[in-house]
Automatic annotation (TrEMBL):
This is Response regulator. Residues 7-122 form the Response regulatory domain. SMART domains: HTH_LUXR, REC. InterPro entries: CheY-like_superfamily, NreC/VraR/RcsB-like_REC, Sig_transdc_resp-reg_C-effctor, Sig_transdc_resp-reg_receiver, Tscrpt_reg_LuxR_C, WalR-like. The keyword Transcription applies. It holds the Pfam family Response_reg. One of its GO terms (biological process) is regulation of DNA-templated transcription. The keyword Transcription applies. The modification 4-aspartylphosphate is found at D58. Residues 149-214 form the HTH luxR-type domain. PANTHER family: TRANSCRIPTIONAL REGULATORY PROTEIN NARL-RELATED, TWO-COMPONENT RESPONSE REGULATOR.
Length: 221
């Protein structure tokens, strides 16, 4: 039974916050908080020691912030990182994605969505809060001239481009399947091929590339 549980490290400089998240997550039958940390430096050490599957990481902390900690953890593939932030357009969010974060949630997220977010990241289905996805990328991503997709996309088939565009707009696999009249399994297959062809780590990088390449534009449908 224990092998089916997803292990977590909760990182936040506020004791009540990290203990509160740990309590919420430990109440889930399939989640197991194996440790906590009060800053990024401690998070890096504890991640190496405890080898959790997912690190729930605050962005702003003393000693070492969540961005640098994420960069170090992801550089060695120690765990997947799910960032928590107070603001839905935190100035550091994009830097954290570049550092390797696999998802983002707001700290006021309902308990049920927190658990869902952890499970999604653990399963490789990278997560961005709906209020973050488009505003985040549109605000930070530097894009080429409209209508001129990057050369990297030339490796994709037309259908793979359709899937990438839908994912870039923040749609889930289920929503992409419904929009493109595909099975969810086929969407997952296409997405896997897209990540492999474009040498992308996860769904977050796919979203960023969809904007950076000009495949989709801010405000576009």
């Amino acid at each position: 039974m224990s092998a089916e549980r997803t292990t977590l490290l909760v990182v936040d400089d506020q004791r009540l916050v990290r203990e509160g998240f740990a309590m919420i997550l430990n109440a889930q039958p399939d989640l197991d908080v194996v440790g906590t940390a009060a800053d990024g430096a401690e998070a890096v050490r504890e991640c190496a020691r405890l080898t959790p599957a997912v690190v729930l990481m605050d962005v702003r902390m003393p000693v070492m912030d969540g961005i640098e900690a994420t960069r170090r953890i992801c550089a060695v593939g120690a765990a997947k990182v799910l960032m928590l932030t107070t603001f839905d357009l935190d100035e550091y969010v994009y830097d954290a994605i570049r550092a390797g974060a696999s998802g983002f949630l707001l700290k006021d997220v309902p308990a049920s969505e927190l658990g869902h977010g952890v499970r999604a990241v653990a399963a490789g289905e990278t997560l961005l809060a709906p209020s973050i996805t488009r505003r985040l990328v549109e605000h930070f991503v530097q894009r080429p001239a409209p209508g001129r997709p990057g050369e990297r996309l030339s490796a994709l088939t037309p259908r793979e481009r359709d899937v990438l565009a839908a994912v870039g707009r923040g749609l889930s696999n289920t929503e992409v399947a419904a929009e493109l009249f595909l099975s969810e399994t086929t969407v997952k297959t296409h997405l896997g091929r897209i990540l492999t062809k474009l040498r992308l780590r996860d769904r977050v990088q796919a979203v960023v590339l969809a904007y950076e390449s000009g495949l989709i534009e801010p405000g576009g449908q």
